[in-house]
Amino acid sequence: MEEIDLEQQEPLPVDRDGKTFRPGADRPDGEREVGCCEKFQESVSRWMLPEDARSKYLERTNCCPPPIFIILISIAELSVFVYYAVWKPQKQWVTLDEGIWNSPHTYQPEKRQEAWRFISYMFVHAGVEHIVGNLLLQLLLGIPLELVHKGFEVGMVYMAGVLAGSLCSSIFDPHSALVGASGGVYALIGGYFMNAVVNFREMIPLLGVFRILVIVILVGTDFGFAFYRRFAAEESGLKVSFVAHFGGILAGMSIGYVFFSAYNQKLLKDPRFWLCIVAYVIFVLFAVLFNIFLSPAS
Question: How the protein sits in the membrane (predicted)?
Answer without folding.
Answer: Multi-pass membrane protein
